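User: Please run a holo structure prediction.
Assistant: Happy to. Please share the sequence and the ligand.
User: Here you go; the ligand is beta-D-fructofuranose.
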Amino acid sequence: MKHLTPIAAGLLALAASYNAQAADGVKIEHLGTNNTLVRVTPDARYILLPVEESIDDATINLLADGKIEKTFYVRLARNKIDYYVPVDISDYKDKDLLLNVVTAHSRSSVREASEDACWQNISLSDTFDTTNTEKFRPSYHHTPLYGWMNDPNGMFYKDGEWHLYYQLNPYGSKWQNMTWGHSSSKDLINWEHHPVAIEPDGLGSIFSGSCIVDTNNSAGFGKDEVIAFYTSAGVNQIQSMAHSSDNGMTFQKYAGNPVITLDSESRDPNLFWYEPTQEWVLLTAHALEHEMLIYTSKDLKNWTLQSAFGKGLGAQDGVWECPDLLELPIEGSDKKKWVLICNLNPGGVFGGSAVQYFVGDFDGKTFTPDTLPDGTVPTKWMDHGKDHYATVSWSGAPDDRKVVVGWMSNWQYAAEVPTKQFRSSNTLPRDLSLFVAEDGQTYLNTVPSPEVDALRGKKALEVKGKNVGSKPSVFKLPTVNNGVCEILLSFNSETAKTVDITLANAKNEKVVMTFNPGESKFSFDRTQSGITDFSKDFPAVVWAPTLRKSTEQKLRIFIDTASIEVFDAEGNFVLTNLVFPNEPYSTISVSSNGGKARIENLTIYNIKNVKH
Ligand code: FRU
């Protein structure tokens, strides 16, 4: 060995010490102030990576035997560890595995870079703990096992199973690495979690889209193949296709991708079969142009742009996203109408994200909206809460039902809500139809899907016929299972101007809902609901038009650990809102202002334990 100068020997010793602390099976080499190699012996199932949420993403190339397998982005911990994320390496047994990590910011020296908390704490493990016991983890709404979730998408029903895909970051609880996560259910309330279904590739990450079952083998991949359309989001947004012969568990990407390109932002392909013309119809959101593009195809591979809908109509702020086009029956008649669903963000009815819709006609190529007598197109909202977005329907639901589910959050603060190892859940599934309201307009009728009734456990309370005055009538909410429950409440405001329904806990945190029959309004105030200070946009008072002149009001209220969905029992309106009370609400009280009111019926059910 050559003689080393004392300085060189010192440096070598230092380098050895930089590399010494890693866990068993992990070898770390710091190449520079922002570049580190992590060599791994792949005899475990997972590499566990430590995450610090406030740090910028590091770019990680995973190489197996010198070949790039995937590139992903992780907020590798520097000062403290918020949680770990697993990288599944079970496919790489007997290979030389290397993570080439480039961190977002250069440190002043290699020594400083080597002191980041992540390096000492990267480890190998055969298990990753998903028994997530966070306080605000929902108790019965669909939620990812860990990681960030946004839009539900690609939903289809086949052979008695409801498949639900969703925008997932498998490597952190903030938006990144968009991948299709996958769950399925036989009853719409118990959910089975599956491995991720579609992962990013050289065309980009995998944004929202839709699935159909190709019963006629239009695409030539085989009869009953499940076909997924999604947006490949790279530098541009282009539409791609993948197909599955195992009922949506795994997908093979189409070699001819992308199938639709445009030189402007367009995304979230939504696909359905239009019987009269025997063609497939696909909508994409021409996001910045505030319009939906309508394409048709016979073979799912070659598409013709037929029309564009929406310029200048409805709410026009922000971007238009996640379209859907559905034919729905009008209650009490034998007529049907088409509804074009348009998610938009920001610019929603109470700020941030929300879902508007247009009622009209569709001829296979063009959607024509209904107008008011003055010729204008009205703006209508599907849900008047703050936390209902990216709502689309299941393809092929039984009995021609139109079943939808939304993401229960808002882009204004979704990444800041007080949870850690996971972020976001979905709304309860809802069945849609149409009804003609007293103002002569046709509106969406939204009710919890009938399957949701099976969530009801023991009856915790039943009160019939009780007069209510300005002194609140107070009733206890269940305490089992963190107080999650379904409340059925029907009341008559009689001579009262308004009726308040208040959910509260001993910390004086509360949600106040107010029925105002004179103004045909129902409002929801969460300004004092608990933890609200993580975003200035979170404390809010929202309201829905009840769309009827009546002193009677019937509600179905679903309380979960961190959400409240209030349905008008007849489907005229819905309000979906997140809440983060420091302890569960323990009472419901009803009081009237300016006159007497009467509770006709108050029934409270516990909620059964379900897999979600
Ligand atoms: C809607 C959205 C979609 C996009 C996806 C990306 O919330 O912005 O337009 O496909 O999220 O995750």
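The helical segments are 6-18, 110-114, 117-121.
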